[in-house]
Amino acid sequence: MSTDETGQGGTRAGAPAGSAGTQGASGRNLIQLITPDGERVSHPEFDPWVKDIGDEQLCSLYEDLTAIRRIDVEATALQRQGELGLWPPLLGQEAAQVGSARALRQDDFIFSSYRENGVAYCRGVDLTDILRVWRGNGSSGWDPYTVNMATPQIIIGAQTLHATGYAMGIQNDGADSVAVTYFGDGATSEGDVNEAMVFAASFQVPLVFFCSNNHWAISEPVRLQSHVQLADRAAGFGIPSLRVDGNDVLAVMAATRVAVDRARHGGGPTFIEAVTYRMGPHTTADDPTRYRDANELEDWAAKDPIDRVKALLDRKGLLTDQYQQHVKDKADAVARELRAGCIAMPEPGPLDVFKHVYSAPNSWLDRQQDHYTRYLASFGDPAGATSQEGAR
Predict the structure, then answer these.
(1) Is-contact 283 68, C-beta < 8 A?
(2) How does pLDDT run across 209-248, given as a tens digit for each residue?
(3) What's the N-to-C CA distance of the chain in angstroms?
(4) In this predicted model, what pLDDT tens digit does every residue of 13-64 receive, in sequence order?
(5) What residue spans define the domains of the chain?
(6) Catalytic: 162?
(7) Domain 47-343, CATH
(8) 135 catalytic residue (yes or no)
(9) SS3 of 224, please?
(10) One of 80, 105, 291, 374 is an active-site residue; which one?
(11) Which of 70, 262, 282, 308 is catalytic?
(12) Does residue 291 carry a catalytic annotation?
């Protein structure tokens, strides 16, 4: 794009000496290790953080990216076919999610928004559980402690407060794990996010704020939300920040590893702005053609996160016909599992809404359940009594 690819104005004096990456009109470089045409560029500061990523690991990242896009396409199709009530596409944001998720240890804990389905996949969340909320079959998707990832937060920015509190707990326990919270550019305008950064900075908790700047908060462009780059906002809280090409899986991984290492060794929180683009709608209920210029979408399609890794693999001679078929078969298998799990999901019973609300018996909830059971019975509904036993 001829203009600042963040869509934001403002200036920043000086970029780090010797830094590599693309630079917009605002003057601050994006950390970039793979160009859109698949060229691996050197970055003295960040190369050491991904020195372990050889050909095998790069292929694994490519397979993750491809599988996640296939999940997204399949889930969108399921919604269009009436199998899901809603779906929040992540098309174009795969690298930001894979690169960051694969930089974490299993004992690190994630607090996400509703769009980080790729992160959930990387954490090993069952594919059916990813769809459970969107099909309306449950108020939650999975047990957070089996994968160390909280279920998606719909309230914009609320997960940043949860992450800050969890990180304070890590600090009090004397552990060396880290909390990571994901949110979009629009969430930075929310009070919850700003309050979370105040607390995180004040107590220097082990937390990474990961902002996926996809340029659009539904129909609101980021340039109207902020007249400076989002990463620069963190300085006002005393939090160091990194600004990375969010369509570059390797650069995202390097930046996340830097932030996680800082947090793990007592350096406090870091704010990462991953500059990416939401190529699809905000949700399947949205029509982005009403507010977005088609030329903008075309410009960002040329920076596709999967195409650039594919081009890099091709440069390395790794993109054989056999390997491409392997990747396709793996992605197709994931899609089949997702669809089968969605369609086979049992319908919830009338009283299932009372399940998993509290971890211990609760008289207030029991009273509501009793009232609702008797209400159902007044219609001669035999399911009421059966579901009551299941709920208890």
Answers:
(1) no
(2) 999 999 999 999 999 988 899 999 999 999 999 999 999 9
(3) 58
(4) 333 333 344 544 344 689 999 999 999 999 999 999 999 999 999 999 999 9
(5) 47-343, 352-391
(6) no
(7) 3.40.50.970
(8) no
(9) helix
(10) 291
(11) 282
(12) yes
